[in-house]
What does this fold into?
Amino acid sequence: MSKIYATIITIGDELLIGQVVDTNSSWIAQELNKIGVAVKHRVAVGDVWQDIWEALDEESKKADIILITGGLGPTADDITKPLLCEYFNGKMVVDQPTLEHLTHLFEQILKRPMIERNAKQAEVPDTCTVLKNEQGTAPGMLFKRDGRIFVAMPGVPHEMKWMMTHHVLPMIPELYNTGFIEHRTLLTAGIGESFLADLINEFETSLPDHVKLAYLPNFGMVRLRLSSWALEKKTLNKELDNLFNLLKINVKEYLVIDEDLPMEVAVGKLLKERKQTVSTAESCTGGYIAHLLSIHPGSSVFFTGSIVSYANIIKERMLGVSHEILTTVGAVSEETVVQMAKAVRETLQTDYSIAVSGIMGPDGATAEKPVGLVWVAIASKDHVVSKSFQFRFDRRRNIELTAINALNMLRTMIVDNS
Amino acid sequence: MSKIYATIITIGDELLIGQVVDTNSSWIAQELNKIGVAVKHRVAVGDVWQDIWEALDEESKKADIILITGGLGPTADDITKPLLCEYFNGKMVVDQPTLEHLTHLFEQILKRPMIERNAKQAEVPDTCTVLKNEQGTAPGMLFKRDGRIFVAMPGVPHEMKWMMTHHVLPMIPELYNTGFIEHRTLLTAGIGESFLADLINEFETSLPDHVKLAYLPNFGMVRLRLSSWALEKKTLNKELDNLFNLLKINVKEYLVIDEDLPMEVAVGKLLKERKQTVSTAESCTGGYIAHLLSIHPGSSVFFTGSIVSYANIIKERMLGVSHEILTTVGAVSEETVVQMAKAVRETLQTDYSIAVSGIMGPDGATAEKPVGLVWVAIASKDHVVSKSFQFRFDRRRNIELTAINALNMLRTMIVDNS
It folds into this structure.
């Protein structure tokens, strides 16, 4: 066996003019990594015949598995299918199962007439194996050449994911002896990348050659990932677990969670374990913390609800912040968030609450209160802690940082209360 | 002059194992397009010497401008800087302005000691022009070779954006005679890509060769983008505006907005123009609609707040949904959302309100109520409209689709009321 490499080719002008952020590639890379296939290269090209052709030529020199997404739609700018037909010396034929799937989809599910443009999606090169697309209209195509596989999938994320999960990922271990890559990831908060690197310098330099440490900084947190590749899963895991335990001891003071999970999931886990609940009162984050807490399945166990008091009148009317506070120290103040936190916890009857108020920018700053100033309060039955932050970024990033730091304050309180 | 092409090389293992979604590339592409530079290719490579070297070789064959992001951090896995030093036959020297910037940053702003790891960030190849990084520690580097420019920037998004905006983008028109690319984009809702293609088939086939039409489907909406490239801005704009007007007439029935703006901004614009306000009562979306409405600057003019009633007890207590309704027809019902919409509009005293309740999955389905079933109600002073949807996707997508469709229902009501 030898190491198996994949490359990803994403096709579509929308990726090159920047109107769409490519989320497919990172998902594909994650899934391939889990089964021991390393993504070596990723390339994005436009809907241009020559560029796609060259990408196929070049990427097939680099990898064993070439995954292609996009360009399979029913419209005129989608040229991937005829190109693949020519590239793999085929001719177009109607794939009967796909035609039946399309007919069923339009007649039974969508209940609208199937137009010719859609019917044409059942045509495929006769040199490919068709991969059924349960989630949409464009079928996937698998080609083999010189020991390599080329898989073309739709660019629509949920269609691509379904096809990868049901067709492509199960096929790879059968085709290749892929070996194993394992990762161990932990999340830290409250320490910068450089200081963290200094803290674990001795650990890092003592790592064996086949184990790699990566720093993944994001929004005031740093994830640390240990990766190792080997022929045998058993020895791999044991060694990696030992190293990971050592790493955890090294960063103990800053450790949020020893899994590759976002902050809000780490907090949700703590609450679930303790059968406790949380609510939020949000001004400047406008419901974003509530959204983070509720985006993951199973959140109804610990998340009850929120009062998004974007306007001051809502802070007064629904959260009991006095008119006096709002007109003297103002909405962005310790007094305001403490009252918001107390009120929402009582009204929504939760164990904990989070309250935030700040100036996210670009507007709204005053001489005393610059853009990026945020007050956060966390309340439990017995006490309230509050803290101010001064972020220095744009609106989106300030909102994100406010949410992450507020959740980390809640996490600290939950852990301290245990 | 000739057409100027750029390619983007993103460097970092985190992009290849999929732990980070690359949002830099789409931003860079958008900004380059605005000044008439077309991105021809985008490639992601890991922190691997040979792969980065090859990418530099290959991409310089394809483009005039090679933009490189990532791999400039202070940690051991960041090898881009020494590699560029060797690639461009330089030797490392301390850049005095960068060292002063770093010293100032640590002493005055971060107020913590500068460790050696950080001080080393002031070292740069003597064959580059240094681009100051006001937003962080790693300086940018500009190299020239054979009429091409190579720009290396940090991977941290806000640092890269600052550097592009202040150094790179202003430099390009000075270096190249770039010509002009113009885009016109509109947003449609309520019609699929194929039907839209049929609707505008005649328009599309009549387009001149230098004008391109692209379909950008996303979350039940399709954006249509007309693009044209020419030497002269004046004639370009006139022709494109005429074609765009024709396109707007063709899709009139489904047109949301004739700008490249997301649905929530289109809705916010309508409300601002009419000096009207909106509030939301959210169950299944958990604050996501509030987040969408408040993420953009200036939203406090039309967005007042929300009651996120994730738990049924909050629907009863704060939105007056009767216990009888909740125990008979249930939380996911027309009765519930109509009451939620009426109550939140009255409590938060807004002109309009949005209420949603549904089953986002993967849990929570019953025999009568499958995953993806959502009820939406929109209330104004005089009436309430409600509608159910059946989405067929995963949790995140169902939440996104619920928000977009609810916002589109509000948009329709605002337009109908005018």
User: Anything to note?
Assistant: DSSP finds 16 helices and 17 strands in chain B. Chain B has a mean pLDDT of 92. Residues 131 and 140 of chain B are 5 Å apart (CA to CA).
